[in-house]
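Reply to dn_fold:

You asked what the input looked like. This is it:
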Amino acid sequence: MFVDFQEIQSLGTHQFQLITATTAATANGLHALSVETGEFSKKQVETNHALGQRLLNAQSLGEIVAIQSDFARASFEDFITQATRISGLYTDLAKEVFKSAKVAPSAKSSVAASSPKGPIVAKQPSI
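and this is what came back:
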C-alpha cells in the first residue's frame, strides 16, 4: 500500500492542531478554576479575621456562642455556594476539552481510514 507524503504530513498537522486546541482549552479552564479558588480563599481569610475581631469584642458567653453559630452557618452556606461554582467550572472545562478534541479533520485522510494490515510505504516527492 502506497501513501502520499503530503497525506501523512497533513495527518500529523491535524493531530498537532487537535492537541494544541485541547491544551489551550485545558489551560483556560484551569486558569478560571485557580482564579475562583483564589478569590474564595481571600474571602475566607477576610471572614475569619472579622470573626476574630467580633469574638474579641464579645461581652458575654452567650454573645460568643451566637457569633460562632452565625459564623458556622454562613461558612457552610459559602462552602456550598463555592462547591457549586467549582463544579460548574469543572463541567465547563470538560465540555470545552471534549469539544476541542472532537473537531473533525478538514479532509478525511486515506491513512486514517485505511486498516493497518500492511506496512506503509511513503511515496517520495518528485524533484
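The helical segments are 5-57, 61-101, 110-113.
Hope that clears it up.
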